[in-house]
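Morning. Coffee machine broken again, so started the prediction first thing and wrote up yesterday's gels while waiting. Chain of 262 residues, entered below exactly as on the submission form.
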Amino acid sequence: MQTYYGRDEEDGRLGGGAGLLELLRTKELVRRYLPPAPASIVDVGGGTGVHARWLAELGHRVDLVDAVPLHVARASEIPGVTAVLGDARKLDAADASYDFVLMCGPLYHLLTVEDRLAAWREAHRVLKPGGFVAAATISRFSSFHDGLYRDLFRHEEFRAMVESTVVDGHHRPPEDRPFNWFTHTYFHRPEESVQEAVTAGFLAPQVFSVEGSGRALPDDEVDARLADPVRREHLLWALRLVETEPSVLGVSSHLLTVGRKG
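Came back before lunch.
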């Protein structure tokens, strides 16, 4: 993970195409649950501060925690954001110290259910009663759909990787292609993140598709639609329409699970 993110390509990934759609939809979903500004927010696994930046611009106080030194250094430069090295499984924060917890980075990099539950429980611990957590996961079928959209099944190694991933959730790129196809991660079924959130004590968690079927569009088509105000709204309207429909959740590359602390 450290080597993968040390290549410093994450910001560029969210700058256009499917990455930009992921960013816009995540912002849209998170804003539904944000308390009024100024609120205290911890951005766990917040990377270089892509989300911390817009949250701070809304007037919130944002503390970012990330395991990658490069990310922390970049995020520290954002006005209104405090960034520190840390571990999602053991946050250096007092009980009930935040109004909102954003967890867009850690869960797919934590490879065991015990570690993922530790991160969920830490989010629950530092959250004030009545506050919300919003946590991102990667869909179990993300690499399967990427293979279809990008014609990657022509690679025997990719087929073998996907065949294994859809069975046990572990996305394991072959050793001779360590970063071409991401890095070793855990891909959730939609219902798994809900089960994890409930086990950690969150009430009535809801899972949303982020890009939904929009992920099937070529990147240049996504960019064209997002650049046109009318077509942009039509695209976002369509994704909202089925964002919680269980039968199509697995089509989305990314999922966002939102839960409340009682």
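DSSP finds eleven helices and nine strands in the chain. Going to sketch it on the whiteboard this afternoon.
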